[in-house]
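User: Show me a protein chain along with its predicted structure.
Assistant: Here is one chain, sequence first, then structure tokens.
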Amino acid sequence: MHEEIFDVVNEHDEVIGQAPRSEVHRRALRHRAVHVLIFNGRGELFLQQRSLEKDNWPGVWDSSASGHLDAGESYDACTVRELGEELGLCLSEVPPRLFKLAASSETGWEFCWVYRAEHEGPFVLQPSEIRGGGWFPPSALADWIERRPHDFASAFVVIWAKLSQQLASRVSAHPTPE
């Protein structure tokens, strides 16, 4: 099996070359990834527990689906591909984008577009990628992250903080009448 090739990007997320996955990770080169947050009708978020075989963040909890862009691949195409590979979902449309994270040590030097999808499951989890998964109410998830942040991939902790901040700003912009 051949090694994945990633686009290497600069601080502006512009492609400056390509390199094998192992080199990108070993040298902490900037590259690209996607994260998808899947919510059900009850407002619960599906999280995956990463396989123990993963080279980064094995066994911890992470976004519903996530993955690296292959060289030349778009963020949107990668999102659809990763949902199919990791969860067995075949989407006819790309889910909406929520926000983009800059490459940093917390994201593993990945520029990350974060997407939101809605689905009730069940999912077909790819065992080489995912150890397990579950649905979590946002309030319970917030408490868990606060108490045990190391149970989660560091990029997911950053994503959750930004999502929580966005939700809080929407609530304060539209207060409920008394």
